[in-house]
Amino acid sequence: MREPTMRISARNQLKGTIVEVTKGATTAHVRIDIGGSIVTASVTNAAVDDLGLEVGQPAYAVIKASDVMVAVD
To answer: What pTM was computed for the model?
Structure first.
């Protein structure tokens, strides 16, 4: 049986390659190289295990934000 393709409503999807996965006590940082820029996501250790995230694996950084703030000195 073919697995269904996941679809998501977030439009800010950046395809890249996982370059680092660092697990902490409960939370992991996953660094994704997006064409030379690094995006870091904080996810649970369980999510890393469930998704089978590994260095070298293609992945998407999906960004969903309701607010964008700007600050200046």
So the answer is: 0.81
Q: Evaluate whether residue 58 is within a structural domain.
A: yes
d(CA 38, CA 29): 12
- 49-72 pLDDT per residue, tens: 999 999 999 999 998 877 777 789
Structural domain count, the chain: 1
Token pair 């295990």: residue: 49
Which DSSP string corresponds to 1-70?
-PPPPP--S--EEEEEEEEEEEE-SSEEEEEEEETTEEEEEEEEHHHHHHHT--TT-EEEEEE--S----
8 assigned to some structural domain: no
CA-CA distance, 45 to 3, in Å (whole number)?
24
